[in-house]
Amino acid sequence: MKMEVLGARCSVLVLVLVLVLVPVLVLGAACGSKGDPLPPLRLAPAKAAGLTAARIEGRPITLQFVVPAANDDGSVPVDIASMRVFAVTLPASEAAPTPLDLLGGDLLVATLDVQAPRADDARQTTGAPAPPPPAPEPGTPITWDDTTETGTYAT
Asked: What count of other Cβ atoms lies within 10 Å of the Cβ of residue 64?
């Protein structure tokens, strides 16, 4: 009789261990991620498309390009608040500035604000024309005229 009670207690103990301990171990092993924490995902806008530069003698340089409508990985909405224009005068034999050269700000000549993309991307189609937005939207062309004096670029 003692053996039967002892056997029943062992069965209950094994059952409790299986029902409680196994799920705890499985959930504990799956909890969290392995390795060091990752920085937040920062999406980079795609490159500006259709870049053209024109200079008529005696007049400033005019740049035209299209504000990116998607991020570099193709995802939308685009993560962009402004576009920067850099300028430098170098002989053709010298190498172009690297991205690290641009960080100092010496070559920055303009910062162009970009309007955040609309959530519904609705465009007005009837009635009076809407006033122009204060800044270009993603996917729209932009024109910039150089207003700096000739020879003021970093050399």
From this structure: 14
Q: DSSP secondary structure string, 85-147?
A: EE-B---TTSPPPPHHHHHTSTTEEEEEE-PPPPSS-----SSSPPPPPSSPPTTSEEEEE--
Report whether 69 contacts 139 (CB < 8 A).
yes
Tell me the pTM: 0.56
> How far apart are the C-alpha atoms of 47 and 45, rounded to whole Å?
7
Q: What span, in angstroms and rounded, lies between the C-alpha atoms of 97 and 92? A: 12
User: What would the pLDDT profile of 98-153 be if each residue is shown by its tens digit?
Assistant: 888 888 778 888 899 988 777 654 444 445 565 655 678 888 888 888 776 654 44
Strand 108-113 with 49-54, pairing: unpaired
pLDDT tens readout for residues 46-55: 999 999 988 8
**One-letter amino acid identity for 18?**
V
DSSP symbol at 55: -
User: Which residues partner with 49 through β-bridges?
Assistant: 66
Is 97 in contact with 88 (CB distance < 8 Å)? yes
Q: Which two tokens stand for residue 23?
A: 């799920």
Kind and range of the H or E element at 6?
A: helix 2-16
